[in-house]
Amino acid sequence: MSSVTVVDHPLIQHKLSIMRDKQTSTASFRRLLREIAHLLCYEVMRDLELESNPIETPMGKMEAVKLKGKKLVFASILRAGNGLLEGMLDLVPAARVAHIGLYRDHETLQPVEYYFKAPSDIADRFIIVVDPMLATANSAIAAVERLKGRGANNLRFLCLLAAPEGVEAFTKAHPDVPVFTAAIDSHLNDKGYIVPGLGDAGDRMYGTK
Ligand code: PRP
Ligand code: URA
Q1: Looking at the whole model, is its pTM more than 0.70?
Q2: If both were cysteines, with which of 45, 104, 141, 203 could 209 make a disulfide (CB 3.0 to 4.6 Å apart)?
C-alpha cells in the first residue's frame, strides 16, 4: 500500500474551512486554492533532489544548492487540477506541465478522457499529479494509469480533499504512488460526492453552476 500523508497545518485547515463554506465566492475559492497549493507544494516536495553549483556571493565563493527543476512535471487533471497547478507553478516556475482532460460521467462515475498532452520524456521525470478532489478515485487512478502507460515510474498524487473510499481504492490500484492530502473527510454520498467536502470543485472554481 502506498503512503498517505495528511498535511494538516493550521494555515491549511483555516483556508480549507473557508473554501468549504458554500457562501465563499468564486474569486475567493480560486485564490484560497492557489494559496493552499503553495503550502501543499512545500510538503510534497520536502525530499526533492538538489544539485550544487559554485556561485559567488558579495562575500566570497560557495557551493550553492538548487532544485533539479527541469526534472519535474506537474500533471493537472482538468479542470479543477489547474487550481492546484497554478499555485505549484508559482513556486516552481521551471516545472514542465502535463494536462489530462477527464470528466466524471455523472451516472457511472467513470472518467471520460477528452484531452492528453504530456512532455515526451516523462519516463525520466518526477511527476506530481494534482487534482483537488479524490472521491471514488476513478479519475486519479485513470490519470496515473495513462502516465504509467507513457513510461512514468516516479509519481506522487496531491489533492486537497479525499474520501476514505478514494484513498483505499487509489492506494490499492497504485501502491507505488504516495498520496498527499490536506484532509480525509467522512464518506462519499450516493452520488459520489465527498461529505462534508466542498461540493463540485470545478464548478466552484469557475462559477459554472
Ligand atoms: C472532479 C475532480 C476530480 C474528480 C474526482 O472533476 O476534480 O477530477 O471529480 O472524482 P472521482 O475521484 O470520483 O473520480 P470533474 O469530473 O467534476 O471534472 P471538472 O474538474 O472538469 O469539473
Ligand atoms: N468531484 C468534486 O468536485 N467534488 C466531489 O465531492 C467529488 C468529486
Answers
A1: yes
A2: 203
Q: Which domains does the chain have, with CATH numbers?
A: 4-206 (3.40.50.2020)
Rounded mean pLDDT for each run of 10 residues along the chain, 209 residues in total = 91 98 97 98 92 97 85 95 97 94 94 96 94 98 98 97 98 98 98 98 95
Element holding 62 (H helix, E strand):
strand 60-67
Q: What number does the ligand 2 atom closest to the CA of 202 have? A: 3
Catalytic residue (one of 30, 79, 104, 125): 104
Mention every residue, 6+ apart, whose C-beta is less than 8 A from residue 103: 111, 112, 114
User: What is the residue with the minimal CA distance to atom 5 of ligand 2?
Assistant: 193
- Cα separation, 163 vs 161, in Å, equals 7
Nearest ligand to the CA atom of 83:
1
Asked if 182 contacts 15 with a C-beta cutoff of 8 angstroms, the reply is no
CA atoms within 13 A on the CB side of 147: 34
CA of 201 to the centre of ligand 2 (A): 6
Q: Name the one residue in this structure whose C-alpha cell is 521551471.
A: 94
Cβ of 200 closer than 6 Å to ligand 2, yes or no, is yes
SS3 state at 101 = strand
